[in-house]
Amino acid sequence: MTEKTTPAVFLDRDGTIIEDRGHLRSPSEVVFFPDTVPSLKRLQEHFRLFVVTHQRGIADGIVSAAEVARVNEHVVAELSRHGVDITEVYCCPHRREDGCDCIKPKPYHLRQAARDYHIDLTRSFMVGDHPHDVVLADNAGACGIYVRTGHGAKHLAEIRGRPAIVPGIREAADWILACREMQRQQALHPAWLDEAADLLRNGGLVAFPTETVYGLGAAAFDPTAVARIFEAKGRPRFDPLIVHVSSPEQVSLLADGIPAAAQRLIGQFWPGPLTLVLPKAAAVPDLVTAGLPTVAIRMPRHPLALELIRRAGTPIAAPSANAFGFTSPTSARHVLDHLAGKVDLVLDGGSCPVGIESSIVSLAGESPVLLRPGGIPAEDIEAVTGPLQRERHGKSAVVAAPGMLPRHYAPRTPLRLIPEAEAWPIPASGQKVGLLAFREVPDPTPFTCVEVLSGSGDLREAAATLFGAMRRLDEIHLDSIVARLVPQEGLGRAINDRLTRAAGQGT
Ligand code: TXA
Ligand code: MG
């Protein structure tokens, strides 16, 4: 069946795809966010792209309509030069007080696009850094996505309802593509989410995608269901689970008090790959927390995960959906590789955009402790909390993060880390060695197989490809895998943590 109408993504301009630098008069003032072009390229494979911008500087006499038009033409031309096609730029030149029809959040321009280009607004998205952008989406029957770039951080408190709140345009694209995947599955089997929620309410196990890795979920307040998670994974009972919530409000069901630092971290990073360890509420089963007085909680940044938790009507306890000790799954197929027959349902939401597990911060003690480096760089967390203590897994390890074992996240094939100063080893004849490289390698010929995490040296891309690459190398019966650590910055810390544990050298 061919579709008569196309979905679109409507993009706010300032603060969403380019930096917000006040009223722009000339093309030379335009600065694109580094993520804009790659993100829009991914989106345009499935959506028509429009820009919808409010330029009240025109009515205020600060900029001329001609200057704004030149800036807009430049934005379109630059994007086009990089292979991104913007169908049309809609611009409202009025003051809010003018009561015009074309001002956000009135849906005037979106309706115009719907008419002129046969856009199906119900399958469309509006991305912006102002609450008006989200309300605009609502008013047009589309889905609003709020970015924290531009004015985003400043107006966060004014946001009503539950739109997607994401760090920037890259994660907005992740969200939109995940929604599209969800709609596609929904069309194939309309009842799938209700079935999944029913299963969870009745003691079942459901694997589901999050932005980090796939989780193996059970209703958090159902100890019998939670016990099945440990069985399915072969996970020791001393290793506690993370409880997933669909809103910050649900934290009060699980935690006994929310310290101010936790509030700040939630405000800054949720939904997203940050797990908080807090003193636990009495109602949380001991099995979930392995008898600890604390509970780990996170709100995932994935539309399917959030919708599932909402429909289930309960927080969901979920470890990564892999056999204990092995590489985490970043696709539905990875889940089935380890857990087929042991899980009641696997929700396929495509591949996980972050690709590495959440960062875990404990706020249960005197000062915040980083228990596991993960999807949010430690530097970013420290900008909110101040210096984080790093957990050292010596004698004190028992309490802190029991799951952080020296060998973990590991392929079955032995993995060896080669120090930076050493050349790549040449495999002995007859030896089949795989190379897990961060960037392109000069000479791949000695190796049976080479996996490159990011040709361009992007640590976020490397994190997203790490576990998939490890699994592919693991599947081809090599004698060993060699790898090197990546730069120890941003997501590099989390990647290095996983590589070190995969090599059985965790601390
Ligand atoms: O990104 C993620 O966090 C993924 C997705 C599915 O959300 N989940 C995940 O769960 O990685 P899992 O079970 O593979 O790792 C959870 C880690 C373990 O190392 C566990 O020991 C630690 O969290 N943890 C859980 N509860 C804790 C607690 N109360 N105190 C300290 N560490 C805790
Ligand atoms: Mg804006």
Distinctive features:
single chain; 507 residues; alpha/beta; Rossmann fold; DHBP synthase; 3 domains; ten-stranded mixed β-sheet; six-stranded parallel β-sheet; 20 strands; globular; binds threonylcarbamoyladenylate; binds magnesium ion
Describe the structure.
- The protein folds into three domains: 8-183, 3-Layer(aba) Sandwich (Rossmann fold), CATH 3.40.50; 192-395, DHBP synthase; 415-502, Rossmann fold, CATH 3.40.50.11030.
- Helices cover 31% and strands 16% of the residues.
- Helix 1 (36-44) runs parallel beside helix 5 (169-188).
- The chain is α/β, with parallel strands linked by helices and 507 residues long.
- Residues 394-399 have low confidence and may be disordered.
- The strands form three sheets. A ten-stranded mixed beta sheet has the order 13-7-8-12-9-11-10-14-15-16, with helices on both faces. The chain has a six-stranded parallel beta sheet with strand order 3-2-1-4-5-6, sandwiched between helices.
- Strand 14 and strand 15 form a beta hairpin.
- It is globular.
- It contains 15 helices and 20 strands.
- Threonylcarbamoyladenylate (TXA) binds next to strand 10, strand 11 and strand 15.
